[in-house]
Predict the 3D structure of the following.
Amino acid sequence: MYKKLFIPGPTHVREEILGAQTAPMIGHRSKDYSALQAAVSPKLKQLLYTEQPVFMYASSGTGLMEGSLRQGVQKRALVTVCGAFSERWYEIAVANGVPTDRLDVDLGKGFTPEMVDEALSKADYDVLTLTFNETATGVMNPVKEIAALVRQKYPDVLILVDAVSAMAGAKIEFDAWGIDVAFASSQKCFALPPGLAIAAVSERAFKRAEQIPNRGYYFDYLTMLKSYKKDQTPATPAISLIYALNRQLDDILAEGLENRWARHIEMANLVREWGRKHWALFADERFLSNTVTTVTNTREVSIADLNAELGKRGAQISNGYGTLKEKTFRIAHMGDLTVADIKWLLGEIDDILGL
């Protein structure tokens, strides 16, 4: 049975977007492909409020985490960890032999500029990693405010942002905020199938990469930039997904960026109000995500059983992640989901559980 996905990735994909992938295949070194990339690139820049290049890789977001660390760190990285997915920053840094310290908060908490300031003052760091939206806990960190602090007090520190579950669902003003790398995956707020990763890269990040001899191959910004200037990619691009992205960006811009951000907030508010009424919200109220809400299972129901029943009705939510399984559940409100979709889902859960 078809199920509408209210999980934090892969998200629900509209029929029109699925259909866009069926365009006839073209050669990736052809003028047709260059025309496709030339159409997509300015729309991505508009989405991210940037004049910097926005690259497309055939990859998951995790690849860009690794690539950004390898190309960014000369001295030492400070990794902020607030859940299972931000933990990945640290695991990748260690796996690549990158000198790294971690700044942790309890699950459900986020970071403030003051916390980051105190941590950066303790060592000679040249990279800070931030997770805009921690999918496991439903925490959205104040990237804009943290970046402002870093740009003012630590101008040589590059700011690398995992925006995997935020980009295209929450406003990211890449240039104005002073971010150096922000990346995302296609299967979250872009509401595309998995397999495409997107990264905006600042001039500071390019200059840093120039100074690092062993910065890797596949994600190398400098090699990518040479191809980007010719509306090409160094390696084979995910052509069908880029067709779908082009269609989706047209629809996003037709909706209007401010309208899109507002729709995500409206959906989030519905879930939050429902969560407070019947359960409890897991995340600190100061850091509530606009794209996914993590709810504490105060009623101690079987989330697996609830999801099985929802599946019969054509919906799927997400159990808690890792150590939070069955202790929490997650409802995504991102991508092409609507306020009406959220109202329907919450009504179905109410009916199943007799709330």
About this structure: The CA atoms of residues 31 and 274 lie 51 Å apart.
